[in-house]
Amino acid sequence: MTSTPSLRPLHPSDAPELDRLQRLAYGDGLQEPTAALLSKITLAPEFCFGAPADAPGRLAAYLLAHPWPSQESPGLARVLTALPERADALHLHDVAVDPAHSGRGIASALISALVDAAIAHGFDLITLVAVQDAAPFWEKQGFCPIRPAVGYDEGALFMERRVGKGAVS
């Protein structure tokens, strides 16, 4: 039987691990500046989680999310200085898993933690942009494709998932 991965809040001191995991997950194509990632943690720490690896100070994976308007995406590489007042959804900005830890349910555990946090904070919608042909993975996580995403690679899709009272059984 597989145990549930342990999770913890992310902190600015995790910056080197975020950079390392980005490189492993995305190669050189979709890496964002450290400042862009840290801005999500600074503005919305209650929606940013890490899965510790076995080695001290290492992460096996992370998830970054923040409140945002439901019909928009903040785009890549954007350093957020404030959250929009009209944020009516959570935007799941990024999930990255070290390939050495894939297949252990870590991404699913991170997404489950985000769903719980969304509901606890009164959000009933989570949005994301699926890149690198990841839409099938996100569909398995309960997300539905809405439209092509503007400003991303070809094939990127804007997707959403209803949670809490807004979820369809």
From TrEMBL:
It comes from the Bacteria. Residues 5-164 form the N-acetyltransferase domain. Keywords: Acyltransferase, Transferase. GO terms for molecular function: acyltransferase activity, transferring groups other than amino-acyl groups. The keyword Zinc does not apply. Gene3D superfamilies: 3.40.630.30. This is GNAT family N-acetyltransferase. It comes from Lujinxingia vulgaris. The lineage of its organism: Bacteria, Deltaproteobacteria, Bradymonadales, Lujinxingiaceae, Lujinxingia.
